[in-house]
Amino acid sequence: MRRGSAEMMTQDDEPTLVSKNRALSALAAALLASAPATAIDPAFRASLRATLFETSPTFRYAPLETPIGRIWVAYGPAPDSQAGAEVLKLVSARDEASFVASVRHLHGENPGRETALPERIAARALDAINGRKGYRGSIDLSILTPFHRQVLEKAREIPRGQVRPYAWIAREIGHPAAVRAVGTALANNPVPFVIPCHRVVRSDGELGQYSGGGTDTKERLLRFEGVDVPQLRTLARQGLRYRGSRNTKIFCLPTCHTTKHAKDKWTVYFHSEDEAFRAGFRPCKVCRPALAI
Hints:
Strand order of the largest sheet: 4-1-2-3-5
Helix content: 25-40%
Oligomer: single chain
Shape: elongated
CATH class of the largest domain: Mainly Alpha
Strand content: 15-25%
Largest sheet: 5 strands, mixed
Structural class: alpha/beta
Order of helices and strands: HHEEEHEHEHEHHEHHEEEHE
CATH superfamily of the largest domain: Winged helix-like DNA-binding domain superfamily/Winged helix DNA-binding domain
Low-confidence stretches: 1-20
Radius of gyration: 25 Å
Distance between the termini: 74 Å
């Protein structure tokens, strides 16, 4: 009886097909379907099996308890130049079964379950979530397009306790008209929490969705970082996008740390960049709310 490429190649126990090379997998399936196993040269069969099959999964995964709940983290071996190191592959707050399905969908194999993450990965992930520092380890973004990687790298620059609109990301990476594409890229961030896409909000000031678990999780993360979410929502409802200081004649995005200690009596809000410019204000050089004119 002929067998499919995901089955064993002989009567003996064989490892399961986990090759990420779809072309080779298709070739193996065609060969197995076109002739009985006894007709395949033993040497060729052994070589093909070594190419297509592995005895253990490439990726591992484990849960991590964090201040915002349990998350799941997948990791794998780093390139040969970083022997002994590991890189993040996927991070999610979804249930375990959905998480494993995501790894399988993105990377072509089921990851192996571990009881705990390697200590270094766990410590770095917790540092990032707690806001002590950005994630300092390697992150595998190789499955993403160059544009997608640009979006995520820019999101990594947003400081803890601050937010930026999608339009800000689009402008900063040199694609000001690609606001919708930026939103799509962030919605498909494979490593939320460590690449903080929760710090990117809709251009109208509302929080928007979040790949790590929806709006509620996004709000919980921002509150944990010290963002005044009720104020953000109030400003969004009023259509106010920028905050300025009459003392400095500088306007900022509402959560910019340079406005944190500004006195209310000197504070003014603007609906648009043009309104701020017409009032004689210039954009902050820290949060870069607009291009200088």
